[in-house]
Amino acid sequence: MTITSIRFSTFDYERWCDLMALKNQLNALMSDLTARQRQVITLRFGLGNDVAYSYEETARILQLSRERVCGIESIALYKLRRPSRSDILMPYWKSLFESD
Hints:
67% helix; Arc Repressor Mutant, subunit A; 5 helices; globular; mainly alpha
């Protein structure tokens, strides 16, 4: 499931606002990544066009080896998982996924 593929059975304005705020925060957090790291994360997790690509597909698109894509993703996720960054996203995560 990608962030933009979350569907609601009935329109829930509050959850929609939370989702939009989460996307804005993700974009802000990803601005600290290198351009290549942003590309890999965007493709791997479907943040740009709602399609999450495999390592092989991402490697083909970026003309890199599968192992290089895996390494770039690993470094980018390490940066994004730092407490100073992950703490920013936790309220959105809880409101979107743990309130059901």
